[in-house]
Write a structure and sequence with these properties.
Strand content: 15-25%
CATH class of the largest domain: Alpha Beta
Distance between the termini: 69 Å
Strand order of the largest sheet: 1-2-9-3-8-7-6-5-4
Oligomer: single chain
Largest sheet: 9 strands, mixed
Structural class: alpha+beta
CATH topology of the largest domain: Aminopeptidase
Number of helices: 9
Order of helices and strands: EHEHEHEHEEEHEHHEHH
CATH superfamily of the largest domain: Gcn5-related N-acetyltransferase (GNAT)
């Protein structure tokens, strides 16, 4: 199985030939193919290569040179960012590895706590994961207060072929100051714009359809993928947060071979993103989640019984 992130990079007139040559190579290897997060401008090329197309959501694209916090539309972001600023939050940028040991240690703690709350592990492929020894092309933006306490951090990776940057990782401390993420992202967009970026991608909003291209919108046929990459409530919350920055929405697509069924596509993508994806591991995680929920239910029931007994004694 070949799982590909994005589109080929090169002259537009050579794109179709590149896709066809890649498909021919995969056929020689007896590989089936999945393309993940294909741009809307390239969809017809994949159709011409006789591949299946499904919309998976939309990418929030901001143009730094026109980005501003002024105006009614940006009132929410502006007020939130100013609130964080009043709390003493400033934004520090690192190109490549973070060289402040104190900040780096806090980032590692924030990342571990975030993963523990989510009940998961670091992922990969098209999804970011925290790496204290990242490559020099990555940009870190940290929200810190006057005591050098890190409240949140984000990372950006280059968007090749478009002279831009893509939001890769976004993590926040448990007790982060209100408005921290708005200040962090607004400052990052301005910083990257000053460095010459043409676009900043805030990432995919899964299953969104602002552009009304729902004739291929990915629906319930791939529940397995939806289950492991988010849920409707989480997706809506993520969409609403990104929407506050007034981006333009670019449709993104899943492309797959006709011989593949959607559950197989979902499993292939899951395996590509997860670092440990054996069936046993998936089952273990499911059992762990069930056990935690069962334990919480027992504790809640015990608490209600204690409350009832205490009430009786107080009469």
């Amino acid at each position: 199985m070949a799982v590909v992130a994005g589109d080929p990079i090169g002259p537009e007139e050579e794109m179709l030939a590149a896709i066809q040559q890649f498909m021919a190579y995969c056929q020689e290897q007896d590989w089936r193919v999945v393309f993940w997060q294909v741009r809307d401008t390239q969809v017809e090329l994949y159709r011409a290569a006789k591949l299946h197309v499904l919309k998976i959501g939309e990418d929030a694209i901001v143009t730094p040179r026109t980005f501003t916090l002024a105006g009614k539309a940006m009132a929410n972001v502006r007020s939130s960012a100013k609130r964080a600023e009043k709390e003493g939050i400033s934004v520090v940028f690192w190109h490549g590895q973070v060289r402040d040991i104190e900040q780096l240690s806090q980032m590692e703690h924030i990342s571990r706590s975030w993963l523990a709350r989510k009940g998961g592990s670091e992922m990969g492929f098209s999804m970011g994961r925290f790496d204290p020894y990242c490559d020099n092309q990555q940009v870190y933006a940290l929200a810190v207060d006057t005591n050098n306490r890190v409240h949140a951090f984000v990372t950006f990776v280059p968007v090749y072929g478009r002279n831009g940057w893509g939001l890769d990782l976004m993590r926040r401390a448990d007790q982060a100051a209100p408005g921290t993420m708005e200040r962090l992202l607004a400052s990052s967009i301005e910083h990257l714009g000053m460095a010459g970026a043409d676009i900043v991608s805030l990432g995919l909003a899964p299953l969104s359809d602002v552009n009304c291209a729902n004739h291929t919108l990915l629906g319930s046929s791939i529940d397995f993928l939806t289950q492991h990459f988010g849920n409707p409530a989480k997706n809506r919350s993520l969409f609403n947060f990104k929407k506050k920055f007034q981006p333009r929405w670019e449709s993104r697509y899943l492309i797959y071979s006709g011989t593949l069924t959607l559950p197989k596509v979902g499993w292939a993508l899951y395996r590509a993103h997860q670092r440990d994806v054996t069936v046993l591991t998936v089952l273990q995680r499911a059992l762990k989640e069930w056990s935690a929920q069962h334990k919480n239910a027992r504790q809640a029931l015990a608490g209600s019984r204690v409350h009832s007994v205490s009430g009786t004694l107080s009469l």
